[in-house]
Design a protein that fits this description.
Two copies of one chain form a homodimer. By secondary structure, chain A is of the alpha+beta class. The first copy, chain A, folds into four domains: about 280 residues, Bira Bifunctional Protein, Domain 2 (BirA Bifunctional Protein, domain 2, 2-Layer Sandwich); about 80 residues, Herpes Virus-1; about 80 residues, Signal recognition particle alu RNA binding heterodimer, srp9/1, CATH 3.30.720.200; about 110 residues, 3-Layer(aba) Sandwich (Rossmann fold), CATH 3.40.50. Helices cover about 35% and strands about 30% of the residues of chain A. In chain A, the strands form eight sheets. A nine-stranded mixed beta sheet of chain A has the order 3-10-11-21-16-15-14-12-13, sandwiched between helices. In chain A, strand 22 and strand 23 form a beta hairpin. In chain A, helix 5 packs antiparallel against helix 6 and helix 15 crosses helix 16. The radius of gyration of chain A is 31 Å and the shape is globular. The two termini of chain A are about 30 Å apart. The interface between A and B is large, with 77 and 77 residues. Chains A, B: One of its GO terms (biological process) is mitochondrial glycyl-tRNA aminoacylation. Chains A, B: InterPro entries: aa-tRNA-synt_IIb, aa-tRNA-synth_II, aa-tRNA-synth_II/BPL/LPL, Anticodon-bd, Anticodon-bd_dom_sf, Gly-tRNA_synthase/POLG2, GlyRS-like_core, tRNA-synt_gly. Chains A, B: It comes from Saccharomyces pastorianus. Chains A, B: Its EC number is 6.1.1.14.
Chain lengths: ~625, ~625
């Protein structure tokens, strides 16, 4: 879609109150949006489909936690340090710009200049290709190198500085308890790992899930609904044994073809076109790291198609090495093509042990799985033992403290102390800031073999994460159509399950006998009818309901009064059929309750009278 | 329920992970809670029932807006000034107490003292009865009068000071854009009034609705789930013509009996017991102010009974005059009785024109309904007219500005100017900080009669507001039971539509042939089964699923392998029947899809073999 198409799309969305900028009568706040009734209903439908497709189908453990999150939690997770964008300030106007966006925007414009030196051209293209992996100092350097100024005023900007994107607040009356609004829904799932494992009867693998709002204090949000400061997310944390990342249902999806833009393809000089490949093949050949990650990618693909996204405007793009978090094993972004370019809507990452480890370290609480071993395992390791009597006599009340510090030494350190003891007949070590010297008659360090009856391990986490708000915008973008014969007549071809309203029902004119017939029909069935009793022409009613993406319309006309038949109209083809109320409702019923799209319009209406539309 | 019962209730809720304090491994944050899988599913069910009962049934316009809300909006709504609690600080320990809670707690304790002077006794009782309406200075005075100290340390406390209960943050990079987390979901609905009216084709009455999280920075939250700092709300704003507050569907509910504790009853010396009365009668006799308010009270009552609350533990308590906002016409709180006393869970208020007026004033945007009059109305008023030619000659480029300032004068002011003009032959007035003198040949002010073809008015707002989190806690409280013969065996008697899991399915033992039979049954029907394949006795499985409030259990046993029959167990009666898988599923099906509770257990299982339970 061109940006003209985008303007038309966004004006239709606003005209029909799918959404509106929030607080508009107060001048609005950029990056905040209200969903109006059709947008809200569509969002409900998407959430419901997500819940069915993932939580119910996979028997996931859903939890719902607060958005307010204490400082310590997000410090441990790395968000306090790393959830930042770099921003440049115009010291005169006090406007702020996101450094990476500014560089992209400026270099793209300069590339259009025909007089640009070929060498410079290449350098700018390289910068653009790798900017997603730029560090802060890369950004500072690039801003200087290309002398990038304020794009509006051409003022010289301050050098980029990091800006934490979390909204900060305080909990309680004292103002001492610093907290943030969560940037994602995942942390609550990690923190509850032990409880989740417990209600899953200690069994692994299992998945948890959360649906809810998250927050990101964007520096200067543009791109409409795609860059919201408050947005709906859905996240899955799948906990799995690091030694076995197979998925019990992988066979069910292994034939699913997904479009993969691998790291290798992105590094090549070829055009960056994804390759369609069965996910089974992708895992077998090592393109995708493991079965569980592959399983979710296939399920994500199926989910998006159910929502009505254009399958040719979707790809999984693998993270480049410099883009991926250091702890992650593999990561693929589900991206959708819109008039704003390719938009990251979903992330599928194997995050290994990172999350559980950081929270366990920070709190001192163990977040592990204890697996009973059928055959106990021998383990040989260095063991330090203390002669308690002599130790107590020498260190008195400090004895316990020193002993426990010694017993917590790692195998590496024990090895060094063992060497030291052999060499010097004593060992020295630091605890509580003092140096303690321990004679060889007080301790022994020896290699011993023990039998282990349980295996204790930190599970790995595979995380499919969904930006539902962004996905909804892409549904709008992909389903927006104009009529072949009239550019001004637009409509949304939402799938039946996504459409805010399934059927509108109206009358051909204002005859006084019509309303009672109408209410009779509405009461017949529970299908979510919406009555359109506006005082306007039937053509305008059709046009309005097309813009709302309502798949079907029932019209009551004068013939209805004679033979109780009504017309049923289909949105995309604009074809109409006529039948009794019962027949028409039965047709709609079939199509609404049809998870596998077996009942097409043609098949379902075959027995009814086809109406010629002028 | 005694507080012993409460401990048991809360430990069961935590054991089965209905909820847990958030961030528990970090030490927790009081007033923040996570819902675990059963709690989350129960919450989903309650939200779904609310949506069906209100939004779908009444064709309401749902909107979904951000929690982040700019300062100006909440300044206009009055929350910046008035959404406060008074707190007392212990200057030594730095602990904070809510002044009203502290007074209540202390006086209640002192009343138990047998030596208290009868006059003091009466005064303390009076204070307790009216404390909900106390102003800040009432609280300061009472704290001093009774010399109320820190209940833990007995330290003297600082005098109470107001504390705003909204969480504060900043939007954007500059830190200049002060914002709050919304304390309720209503404001977004008021701000969108014009758009809502527009998509409702300009017709009134109509209702909008929002479901979402709101926030309240409680000073020192106790009372568990009832005093959360972040909580789920659902709010309806019903916009109505102030001259006609009838409700088109009132007749459908007028016989609904609701328990009313009127203002009058609360002021009487009688015990404060509510009176059951048909809502039609209550509106007719003026006990409830109007039909629309009464309609919602009846619908709220129906809703709560569907959720399984005990009808004898519910009342509508009318606000006392000093409790009610100055602009409100009438207000009734829906209160539920729990071990913490009567808890306000729902508010039903007629807020008149307050909300639309304050936002209209602050923004200068009109938020009104324009109604076309069938017969135009005469209206006589003072009209100011300007001699444009002379005016232009005199004021030059300032002419337009001064003219428009004159034309916007209210009728009151015009009257004064009219007098002034008659008396002095000129008028003076202030605009843009300067005093302008206008001679009588430049303007005229005269009484004129005009014909009005439209009526323009600010609609009144009737607001039913639901604390869904609190309602959920009350469901837990009201549905918690212990078995007659064993105090330690507890269960939740949730209604089928509320229960997190409808049916669990399990096997009598670990026979290797059972799992395939089980998966066959699970696949037969879409009913939300939960498999319990834990490695424990059948008795323990029943006990666990009782604690989860699962209404039905299917057990596969050795007879199943012979004749394909299974047992079906009902939670409350613990009765069991046996039938073929098909029969049993058909029984469950009937009961699950039975909105009017027609299919009782006895009726539905009449044809099946009754199993004697030991």
């Amino acid at each position: 879609m061109t940006s003209l198409g985008r303007d038309k799309l966004e004006s239709t969305l606003r005209k029909r109150f799918f959404y509106t900028p929030s607080f508009e009568i107060y001048g609005g706040v950029s990056g905040l949006f209200d969903l109006g009734p059709p947008g809200c209903q569509l969002q409900n439908n998407v959430v419901q489909l997500w819940r069915e497709h993932f939580i119910v189908e996979e028997d996931m453990l859903q939890i719902d936690g607060p958005m307010l999150t204490p400082y310590d939690v997000l410090d441990a997770s790395g968000h306090v340090d790393k959830f930042t964008d770099w921003m440049c300030r115009n010291p005169k106007t006090k406007d702020y710009y996101r450094a990476d966006h500014l560089i992209e925007q400026t270099l793209k414009k300069r590339l259009l200049d025909k007089d640009v030196d070929p060498l410079d051209h290449k350098r700018m293209e390289d910068a653009l290709a790798t900017i997603d992996g730029f560090t802060g100092s890369d950004l500072v350097r690039t801003m200087q190198e290309y002398r990038i100024n304020d794009p509006v005023t051409n003022d010289v900007l301050d050098a980029p500085t990091p800006f934490n994107l979390m909204f900060q607040t305080n909990i309680g009356a004292s103002g001492q308890s610093k907290a943030f609004l969560r940037p994602e829904t995942a942390q609550g799932q990690f923190l509850n790992f032990n409880k989740l494992l417990d209600i899953n009867q200690g069994k692994i693998p299992f998945a948890s899930a959360s649906i809810g709002k998250s927050f990101r204090n964007e520096i200067s949000p543009r791109s409409g609904l795609l860059r919201a400061r408050e947005f709906l997310m859905a996240e899955i944390e799948h906990f799995v044994d690091p030694l076995d990342k197979s998925h019990p249902k992988f066979d069910e999806v292994s034939d699913e073809e997904v479009p993969l833009l691998s790291r290798q393809l992105q590094e090549s000089d070829e055009p960056h076109l994804p390759v369609r490949m069965a996910i089974g093949e992708a895992v077998k050949t090592g393109k995708v790291e493991n079965e569980t990650l592959g399983y979710y990618m296939a399920r994500v693909h199926q989910f998006l198609l159910r929502l009505g996204v254009n399958k040719n405007k979707f790809r999984f793009r693998q993270h480049m090495k410099n883009e991926m978090a250091h702890y992650a094993t593999d990561c693929w972004d589900g991206e959708l093509l819109t008039s704003y370019g390719w938009i990251e809507c979903i992330g599928c990452a194997d995050r290994a042990v990172f999350d559980l480890t950081v929270h366990s370290k920070k709190t001192g609480k163990s977040l592990t799985v204890k697996q009973k071993l059928n055959t106990p395992k021998e383990r040989t390791k260095l063991v330090l033992e203390v002669n308690k009597k002599l130790f107590g006599r020498k260190f008195k009340q400090r004895a316990k403290l020193i002993e426990s510090a010694l017993l917590s030494l790692s195998q590496d350190k024990l090895y060094n102390k063992h060497e030291e003891l052999n060499k010097n007949g004593k060992l020295t070590f630091q605890t509580n800031g003092e140096t303690v010297e321990i004679d060889q008659n007080l301790v022994s360090i020896e290699m011993k073999t023990t039998l282990q009856h349980t295996r204790e391990y930190i599970p790995n986490v595979i995380e499919p994460s969904f930006g539902l708000g962004r996905i909804i915008y892409c549904i709008f973008d992909h389903c927006f159509r104009t009529r072949l014969d009239d550019d001004e007549r637009t409509y949304f071809s939402f799938p039946l399950s996504v459409a805010p309203i399934k059927v509108f029902i109206t009358t051909i004119s204002n005859n006084e006998k019509f309303p009672s017939v109408m209410s009779q029909i509405v009461r017949t069935k529970e299908i979510y009818f919406k009555v359109d009793d506006s005082n306007t022409s039937i053509g305008k009613k059709y046009a309005r309901n097309d813009e709302l993406g309502t798949p079907f319309g029932i019209t009551i006309d004068f013939q209805t009064l004679q033979d109780e038949t009504v017309t049923l109209r289909e949105r995309d083809s604009m074809r109409q059929v006529r039948g009794t109320v019962e027949e028409v409702i039965s047709v709609i019923d079939k199509m609404v309750h049809d998870p596998i799209n077996e009942f097409t319009w043609n098949k379902s209406t075959a027995g009814l009278l086809q109406v010629a539309v002028p």
